[in-house]
Design a protein that fits this description.
Layout (H helix, E strand, L loop, with lengths): L2 H25 L4 E3 L11 H13 L3 E12 L2 E12 L2 E14 L2 E8 L2 H17 L2 E6 L5 E9 L4 H8 L8 E12 L1 H17 L2 E5 L3 H10 L11
Parallel strand pairs: 1-5, 7-8, 8-9
Antiparallel strand pairs: 2-3, 3-4, 4-5, 6-7
């Protein structure tokens, strides 16, 4: 197996020997996390997740991950296993699949999936994104509005480009349509920029609407309750 697989084995060994603190120390701080225990919430640093997990443990929740197997797909290592969670005297066991994403030999993101098929689907989408990269294009629409089309993955690395486009000065009464039809992923940093742009639109008296929101992005809007603040374009 490749060296990336060994890095993941070392992370699990650190957890086994020294618990979560040792695991986080081995992973480093500049990592984006999407763990199972926090309901899929995205954390943009290890310090942020470390604080949340400490609060979870203070609530009496205990967990025990068990690793079954590892497989490498390019710069991503999939770890297959189970997570046993004990809370309120009950123990729940869930089969999980953790994806460890590496850049230049360093861990930069970890995502959690309910099945191997889901994990592989996510990796396929990621490869499409990596091939096409993140792009943003703004042009005039047929009705005189400004249409901003996003393609790829909107995350902590790519969100500054959207921030510059949305938060620049715009004339009053301009209508801006954000076309999300080709956006494969958005995390909370993208969501925060959209909410800031919505506030800027209200202050500057211009309009911001979403077009063709993909199902996974719509679920993010549902989970965070921002549909009212980020209205979709009328059919």
């Amino acid at each position: 197996m490749g060296s990336l697989v060994q890095l993941v084995r070392d992370l699990w060994s650190a957890h086994e020997a020294g618990g979560l603190d040792a695991f986080f120390d081995a992973a480093g701080d500049d990592v984006v996390w999407q763990p199972h225990l926090t309901g899929g919430r995205v954390f943009h640093s290890t310090a942020e997740l470390r604080e949340t997990m400490a609060a979870v443990e203070r609530e009496g929740v205990r967990y025990e991950p068990e690793l079954y197997d590892l497989e490498q797909h390019g710069s991503v290592v999939l770890a297959h296993g189970v997570l046993r969670v004990s809370r309120n005297g009950r123990v729940e066991e869930t089969a999980l699949h953790w994806a460890y994403h590496f850049r230049a030999g360093r861990l930069w993101r970890q995502t959690t999936h309910a099945s191997r098929e889901d994990a592989l689907d996510a990796l396929t989408a990621l490869r499409v994104i990596e091939e096409g990269t993140f792009t943003l294009a703004e042009a005039a629409g047929s009705g005189g509005e400004r249409v901003i089309r996003l393609h790829g993955e909107l995350d902590i690395d790519t969100v500054p480009e959207l921030e510059r486009a949305l938060l620049r000065s715009r004339p009053a009464h301009q209508r801006v349509v954000l076309d999300l039809s080709e956006l494969q992923f958005m995390d909370s940093t993208g969501l925060r920029v959209l909410l800031r742009a919505r506030a800027a639109a209200e202050e500057g008296r211009w309009e911001l609407v979403m077009r063709d929101v993909p199902p996974n992005i719509r679920r993010l809007f549902d989970m965070t309750g921002v549909h009212g603040a980020l209205p979709a374009e009328a059919p």
